[in-house]
Amino acid sequence: FLVGDTRRIIREAAQKSCFICCKMGATITCCQTGCDRTFHLPCAPDGQCVTQYFGAYRSFCWEHRPEQALRPRPSHDNTCSICLDTVGDNISYKTMGCPACQDARFHRHCIQRLALHAGIDFRCPCCLNQEPFMMEMLTMGIRLSKRPPSWQSDPEAAPSDQRHGRCDAATCLCPGGREHTEAHGPWQLRLCSSCAAEGIHQLCSSLGNSTCSWECSTC
C-alpha cells in the first residue's frame, strides 16, 4: 500500500467495531458480498472466523466461512489423530478432517501446531497425503510454514508419521511387550497430552477405562 492508502485504512478501521469483542479498531472485514462484519485478527478464533493465508488472503466470519464436505467417518473412532484426545462427532470449526483418506480427524489447534512444526513436510498425519490435504487446510484457514520441519534442527521433535509407539510405564503389563499397541481396549496407547513424547497402555495407566487425557511424569 501507499502511505496515503495505509492512513486511510487505519482511519476507517478506527471507526469499526469488532463483532466479537465489541472494541474499536477492527481491520478485517468478511469477504462475503453483503456482509459487513468486521473483527480483529486475534479475535478470529473466539469468533470462529477463518482467514486464508494464501492468494488474496481472504477472511470470513463464522456464518460465511468455508466448511469441509466429508463423508461419514468409516471407523467411528472419535479421537484426534494427533493428540489422541476426543474430538467432536461432526465436522465443525474446531473438528477437522482429511479430504483424502476421509477418516483422520483432528482438533483445529492440533493441526495448526503440526503445520507450523512440519513446514514443507506438512501432510495428513494418517494417510500421509500431501497436496490435496495441504490445499484443503489452507482453504480452511490453517497457516503453513515454508521452513524445513522443526525436527530437522530439534532431534526431540518427532514427525507426525513417526509418533511415539511404545509404553513407558515403569511396569508394562502387556503380554506382547511395550511396543504392542491396539486401536481399542486395554492395550490402546495413550500419548502424553502435553508433549506426545511418551506413551502408556490404557491398562498400564491409572486411568482405567476413563477417556481423560494422560500426562507423563516430566510434564
UniProtKB/TrEMBL annotation:
Swiss-Prot/TrEMBL keywords: Ligase, Metal-binding, Zinc, Zinc-finger
NAD keyword on record: no
InterPro entries per UniProt: EPHD, PHD-type_Zinc_Finger, PHD_PHF7/G2E3-like, Znf_FYVE_PHD, Znf_RING, Znf_RING/FYVE/PHD
Record-linked Gene3D superfamilies: Zinc/RING finger domain, C3HC4 (zinc finger)
Annotated Pfam families: PHD_G2E3, zf-HC5HC2H
SUPFAM superfamilies listed in its UniProt record: FYVE/PHD zinc finger
Highest taxon, organism lineage: Eukaryota
Gene Ontology MF terms in the entry: ligase activity; zinc ion binding
Domain PHD-type: start-end pairs: 1-65
Domain RING-type intervals: 80-127
A GO term from the CC aspect: nucleus
Protein name: G2E3 ligase
Lineage, highest ranks first: Eukaryota, Metazoa, Chordata, Craniata, Vertebrata
Gene: G2e3_1
